[in-house]
Amino acid sequence: MLAIDTSTATMTVALFEGSTMLGERHNMSERNHSLYLMPTIQELLSENGLLPADLDGLAVGVGPGSYTGVRIGVTVAKTMAWTLQKPVYGVSSLEALAYGAARELFRADGHEAPAEAMAIGAGKEAGELTPLTVNANKDSLRTWFVPLMDARRGQVYTGLFERNERRYTSDVNHEAESDAFSWTRMRSDGIQLMEPWAAVLQEMAEGSGQVPARIVFIGDVEPFRAIIGRLAESWSGDVASQPFAMKASAVGRLAFPLLAEGAPSDAHGLLPNYTQLTEAENNLLGRV
């Protein structure tokens, strides 16, 4: 299966054989996704001795995100699916961003997380960072992941997802990722003003019957560091903030269940999730 996402500044492509990733490529030239996407796909296939016809299917991030970027990725995926007569699976780009971080930055076994996973501890000044681990001995093993894509003017494309660690006895084999934690969508994708969105998250965390141990902001966090820091100071749990680039491997892994169920998207009907009107559309409506 081929997985692609062009919804952010990172153009990313991954190739899978079953659940094994054969390779992954990234390119940060946001304004040139249309130039590099097909050559990157061809290069990745060629390196693995494959032709497009050998693919079992395609997975694509459908947004939200950059209007032009999302359109490029979805158009290429639809065109390939139609031309090759292969199934195509649309995946939320925000969920892929959060899921990629959930897999790569945090561990559920109590061992140290990679150094790049950083937390703003409760009561700390905004911006003061300390290494974050997911400790299986905590009362709550729930972590909320909040993907952020800067939508300008203080707005973000965002959603909310929960990773819930599973407790095990020593005689249980839990090497499989699907057994290591559960993954749940808590809020639909949308566009939010960051300041009130942080307040909503705090209200949800404090009023939830299943209180999370931490809230982790992933993606375009730098423009909102002060807001995240204020949440860290006012909420009793841990708050983490980490820049993280989109990875097509996460898009592919989120599509695995759809592939197993034989539930592809309609190649003709698959549409980008733009979430909001484009600037041109807003200007047009303003003149009506």
From TrEMBL:
One of its GO terms (cellular component) is cytosol. Coiled coil: none annotated. Keywords: Transferase. Residues 29-124 form the Gcp-like domain. One of its GO terms (biological process) is tRNA threonylcarbamoyladenosine modification. It holds the Pfam family TsaD. InterPro entries: ATPase_NBD (IPR043129), Gcp-like_dom (IPR000905), T6A_TsaB (IPR022496). It comes from the Bacteria. GO terms for molecular function: transferase activity. PANTHER family: TRNA N6-ADENOSINE THREONYLCARBAMOYLTRANSFERASE, TRNA THREONYLCARBAMOYLADENOSINE BIOSYNTHESIS PROTEIN TSAB. This is tRNA (Adenosine(37)-N6)-threonylcarbamoyltransferase complex dimerization subunit type 1 TsaB. The lineage of its organism: Bacteria, Bacillati, Bacillota, Bacilli, Bacillales. The gene is tsaB.
